[in-house]
Amino acid sequence: MSKIKLDTKAYKNNLNQIINKVGSKDRIILVFKDNAYGHGATVLAPLVRELGFKFCAVKDEREAFELVDFFEKILVLSHIPNGNENDELIYAVNDIASLKKIKNNTKIHLAIDTLMHRNGICYNELDLAFDIIRDKNIILLGAFTHFRSADILNADYFVQKQKFNATKEKIRNFCISQNFQNPIFHSHNSAGLERVYELDDELVRIGMSQFGYCQFNNSLLLKPVLSLWADKVSDRVLKAGSSVGYGAKFTTAKDIKIATYDLGYGDGLLRYDGIGELFLANKNQILGTMSMDSFSCIDGGDSVCVFDNATVFARYFNTIEYDILVKLSPFIQRVLV
């Protein structure tokens, strides 16, 4: 049966490198959304709890409820308010309309729109937001923004930092006036963390860097955590002049021993159409078109590593590592090694 192996040593290395840069694990929000970027949130959660991490961020309540036993604080990033918010969770508020709908006394972090214009409250809406927070006794615990171009070396990053700093000052003053606790601020994602030299008073939201992927020169010395493995379904000798797979996209010029393995695009792999050359981790080429539940290649034994670094597949399909990893089926067994 196919499986995903998670390299515990590599994962601990990545977390330690991040801690070394930010100064403390208490300044880290581990982003576990979308099944921890395909790695397996509930598989990794006991490990990070043992390592002393207390704060995570997820996409929605379903993901949050899977992790409530492992983290002291969980921020729900993409919640659509329904008036039935859970008292144990912290909710990102992504616009004024959401603030009006969310249940009284709910714990929140305000999303601040500093340039990306996807989610968030603008600076000139803060006074209205404060009025709503007062009227509904909402518990304002923090605020954050998201960099639209942290992975691109242009001025956007600095413009957004400046805008967020102005917002932070206004939120601090409001919290003091209401006798609220000191608010938490966070703006730096993984790419932002690579660029920043001084975090000031902020926490960081760490997504892909915890799993070994960087945007620049890997100054953090990160190591990919996930490797994807497939098991042999069958094998045969493919005779010279014969083809394998739909559409006969691959025809061999000589007798070769091939095998079929139990992963395909139904398991979340991007579909290889047999054109060009797509190689597994051991440089073994996938032969012919990938099927829904399988692919074929030169016989590599009972089990083959499809990839141990998602960058290889990402480059072939002209996409990013996130796209490769988050699509991996949650039904593939995930194990710590």
TrEMBL record:
Key word Hydrolase present: no
Cofactor(s) essential for the protein: pyridoxal 5'-phosphate
N6-(pyridoxal phosphate)lysine sites (modified residues): K33
Any one Gene Ontology cellular component term annotated for this protein: cytosol
Keyword Isomerase: yes
InterPro entries documented for this protein: Ala_racemase, Ala_racemase/Decarboxylase_C, Ala_racemase_C, Ala_racemase_N, Ala_racemase_pyridoxalP-BS, PLP-binding_barrel
SMART domains assigned to the protein according to its UniProt record, in alphabetical order: Ala_racemase_C
UniProt cross-references to PROSITE patterns, sorted A to Z: ALANINE_RACEMASE
Binding-site list for substrate: R118, M292
Record-level GO BP terms: D-alanine biosynthetic process; peptidoglycan biosynthetic process
EC numbers for this chain: 5.1.1.1
MF annotations from Gene Ontology: alanine racemase activity; pyridoxal phosphate binding
Keywords: Isomerase, Pyridoxal phosphate
PANTHER family per UniProt: ALANINE RACEMASE, ALANINE RACEMASE, CATABOLIC-RELATED
Protein known as: Alanine racemase
Annotated organism of origin: Campylobacter pinnipediorum subsp. caledonicus
Source taxonomy: Bacteria, Pseudomonadati, Campylobacterota, Epsilonproteobacteria, Campylobacterales
Gene name of the record: alr
